[in-house]
Write a structure and sequence with these properties.
Elements (H helix, E strand, L loop, with lengths): L11 H35 L2 H9 L2 H10 L3 H10 L5 H10 L7 H4 L11 E6 L27 H15 L14 E4 L30 H13 L4 E3 L4 H8 L6 H15 L5 E6 L5 H4 E4 L2 E4 L1 E6 L5 H18 L4 E7 L17 E6 L6 H27 L1
Parallel strand pairs: 2-3, 2-4, 4-9, 7-8
Antiparallel strand pairs: 1-8, 5-6, 7-9
């Protein structure tokens, strides 16, 4: 007996096709809703010009050559030799969701507490620098930063000796005259050093805060060193704790506060060419101290905001300083670090205010006055050399 033919119900294929369309529509709606839900909180930031610049700048060389190769055969050969087609889908995904395909940190960072401090890039690594010991800021409650302690007597003696040595130095051969071309400020002015406030060796790094004896001393020493090299410098010592308290702002708004300080300074002094924001790392001596030719130094790391429109120019300055330190003081520089918008201050750090702007982390909570002074003198030497070299080129 022959098998009877299976008779398909009328409209069977139409029903399957209809169901497929419905499923596809539902999947599309779910995926689209998920993307916009995840990215909604950051959309207002993601489409700022600085963020678009940062995202597309990752592919600017490939994109430029790709466009030129479509019109010119010679460029086509160069493109095929050195580049691959620009991954525009990756740029689109980053713009929409802030997820970077080649970087797992962008996927897990928002979900793991504390993980976002590693959402940084080591652009240039100094000796011993890796992602396990990159700088991180401690931001204690403002009520814990109420002290105004005097400089420890032993540390004060070293500070006065450094001032005497500086005052006895010869006059600089070159000078900017009355022009103050460097502006030094301290966004986290409360950051101090345990030895300076009489707490050397204390196990609690969070105690290294003070409204009087703090990182501004480092800025003052740097200001004196640069002036001795003929570079007019202004050092701001605004008490950021007090300013934040008056506005009832939290420590995480310190960069908003320092921005107003810097903008005012730039309005009042049109000669300013360089902005230097000085900080202190929260890490301990093992990561922040080195010995060079028998002298102890506090290590330096230069930090750049990856989202600012002057990033390329600021990186050029940072690279010059890092390479100069590596040449003259091997091991002093921890390198150059860039931080994205998720790492703090929307990836700007006020460096969008100038194309010669850097943030430097000088030492850590355990460094003493001698180490800090040695480091500042070394930094000043390298900075001054680059400054006068640039002035000579500009004059020509």
């Amino acid at each position: 007996m022959k098998n009877p033919k299976r008779i398909q119900p009328k409209g069977y294929f139409f029903i399957l096709s209809y169901r497929g369309i419905i499923v596809a529509i539902i999947v599309f709606i779910v995926i689209s809703s998920g993307i916009f839900t995840v990215s909604y909180s950051s959309l207002q930031h993601n489409f700022r010009s600085t963020f678009i610049y940062q995202t597309l700048s990752n592919y600017k060389a490939q994109s430029l050559f790709y466009l030129m190769s479509t019109e010119n055969h010679q460029f086509s050969e160069a493109f095929d030799k050195h580049f691959s087609p620009p991954p525009l889908y990756s740029a689109a995904l980053q713009l929409a969701t802030n997820i970077r395909i080649a970087d797992a940190r962008s996927l897990f960072g928002p979900e793991l507490p504390g993980f976002l401090i590693y959402d940084s890039n080591i652009l240039l690594a100094g000796k011993g620098t890796d992602y396990t010991n990159i700088p991180h800021d401690s931001a204690p409650p403002l009520e814990n930063i109420s002290g105004e302690r005097e400089l420890d007597p032993q540390e004060n003696k070293k500070y006065e000796e450094s001032q005497k040595q500086q005052n006895s130095t010869h006059q600089a051969e070159r000078s900017t005259g009355d022009k103050k071309v460097v502006y030094i400020y301290h966004t986290h002015s409360w950051e101090s050093f345990l030895p300076l406030i009489g707490l050397q060796g204390d196990k609690d790094a969070d105690k290294a805060v003070d409204n009087k004896t703090n990182i501004t001393l480092v800025g003052k020493i740097l200001g004196m060193e640069l002036k001795a090299d003929g570079i007019g410098t202004e050092v701001d010592t605004t008490n950021m704790t007090q300013e934040l308290n008056e506005k009832k702002w939290k420590p995480n708004r310190a960069y908003d506060m320092s921005r107003t300080v810097v903008e005012t300074a730039l309005q009042q002094n049109k000669d300013v060419q360089y902005l230097i924001d000085i900080h202190r790392d929260s890490r301990r001596a093992d990561d922040t101290t080195t010995t060079i030719n028998g002298k102890s130094y506090a290590k330096i790391m230069i930090v750049l905001g990856a989202s600012n429109p002057h990033f390329d120019q600021n990186f050029h300055l940072a690279k010059e300083i890092h390479q100069g330190l590596e040449k003259e003081y091997p091991g002093l520089s921890r390198g150059v670090l860039s931080k994205r918008k998720t790492s703090g201050n929307n990836g700007l750090y006020n460096q969008d205010l100038s194309n010669n702007s850097i943030l430097i982390e000088v030492g850590g909570v355990d460094n003493n006055m001698e180490e800090l002074t040695n480091t500042v003198k070394a930094f000043s030497d390298v900075f001054s050399e680059n400054f006068w070299k640039a002035e000579k080129v500009n004059a020509q």
